[in-house]
Amino acid sequence: MFSLAVAAAALVATAPAPLAVSPGRHAVGFKLVERAVPVGLWYPSAGGGAPLQYRHYVALDGALDGYRAFLRGNGVAAEGIEAWLAAPLLARRDARPAPGRFPVVLLAAGMGGAFADQAALAEHLASHGYVVASTPSPVRRGVRMEGDEDVLPMAVAQRDDLEIALAAARGQPGADPRRLGLVGYSFGARPQLLLAARHPQARALVSLDGGIGAQAARGWVDGSGLDRAAVTLPILHVWQDGDPTVTPDFALIESLERAPRTLARVEGLRHLDLPTWGPARASLAALAEPDRDALAARVEACYALARAFLDVHVKGHAGTGPAAVARASRGVVTLRDLPARPR
């Protein structure tokens, strides 16, 4: 039986891959595909390949020294920085793909996010039997956002990058893009909503404290041409109400009346718990997180919610949805369902 308490304890404990969150039965491979934008692919592996540390993901942007300076400027001690960069992860670069057919998940980074920021979540999903494709935020290639009027163009740019990622995933051995899930962290939920309207084969959309449920740029989707009545795929929105960086607003989600929607509030969640920074603070003592057990429980809850939702709607597994995670969370997760309105 799934237990968040047991899973969180495993995250805090020393392990061969300390940033791993409840890994599944599959080994994980990673490769970089050079297209019009770089595409990262994580996939179930049959072994081989070079082991990856967190530093290797950071170096994909050619910004290792700049990353160190950024962390120092935000008060992270040198010991913590080096422990994080040296932390091993699950994936091995250019490992052999595992036999079989695996659903595809497109993973959209938050504003300014890079491969390193979503590595822990991508590896988690790949270890549970998904091919995961992602691209860096368009900010990484110079697209700028200076006001609310730039939100829609930025979302369109990221949607188009994710189309490139989907094309790359189609070429991955064992990938089954007919079973497609969409996951977006923070700003990344916005382009995923636009992408869902283009791809009726998409079976689920997971928003991790995403912009589709935030007050910022509330009317961003106006003028996009999005037909809200045509959005019918199940949507999970994981949210928090204790972090001033993101103020919840469910007007857009509530307007998607043809879609079955689940709102999952995670007690104590902070916006930056969701990228790899969250698992790192939960597992590495050198980062001096004051309450690592509580943080680990929050991270485990969010990853478990996303995976359970995808398992039900993309893989077609019964009885493993967010409700089971909420029951096991001992009050960490509270669900609210918004059923689809019949035609």
List keywords for this structure.
12 strands; Rossmann fold; 11 helices; globular; 343 residues; alpha/beta; twelve-stranded mixed beta sheet; 22% strand
Largest sheet: 12 strands, mixed
The percentage of residues in β strands lies in 15-25%
Shape: globular
CATH class: Alpha Beta
Structural class: alpha/beta
Compute the number of strand runs.
12
Per CATH, which architecture? 3-Layer(aba) Sandwich
Relevant CATH superfamily: Alpha/Beta hydrolase fold, catalytic domain
SSE string, helix = H, strand = E? HEEEHHHEEEHEHEHEEHEHHHE
Tally of helical segments? 11
Number of domains: 1
Give me a quick take on this structure.
The protein has one domain (4-218, 233-338): 3-Layer(aba) Sandwich (Rossmann fold).
Topology:
Blueprint: H1 4-12, E1 27-34, E2 38-47, E3 50-53, H2 54-59, H3 64-73, H4 78-86, E4 88-93, E5 96-97, E6 102-108, H5 115-127, E7 131-135, H6 151-170, E8 175-185, H7 189-198, E9 202-208, E10 235-239, H8 251-255, E11 261-266, H9 277-283, H10 292-315, H11 322-328, E12 333-338
Parallel strand pairs: 1-4, 6-7, 6-8, 8-9, 9-10, 10-11
Antiparallel strand pairs: 1-2, 2-5, 2-7, 3-4, 11-12
Descriptive overview:
It is a single chain. With 343 residues, the chain is α/β, with parallel strands linked by helices. It has a single domain (4-218, 233-338), classed as Alpha/Beta hydrolase fold, catalytic domain (Rossmann fold, 3-Layer(aba) Sandwich), CATH 3.40.50.1820. The protein is built from 11 helices and 12 strands. The chain has helices at residues 4-12, 54-59, 64-73, 78-86, 115-127, 151-170, 189-198, 251-255, 277-283, 292-315, 322-328, and strands at residues 27-34, 38-47, 50-53, 88-93, 96-97, 102-108, 131-135, 175-185, 202-208, 235-239, 261-266, 333-338. Strands 1, 2, 3, 4, 5, 6, 7, 8, 9, 10, 11 and 12 form a 12-stranded mixed sheet that branches. Strand 1 and strand 2 (38-47) form a beta hairpin. Helix 6 crosses helix 7, helix 9 (277-283) packs across helix 10 and helix 10 runs antiparallel to helix 11 (322-328). It is globular, with a radius of gyration of 18 Å. The model has no long low-confidence stretch (mean pLDDT 94).
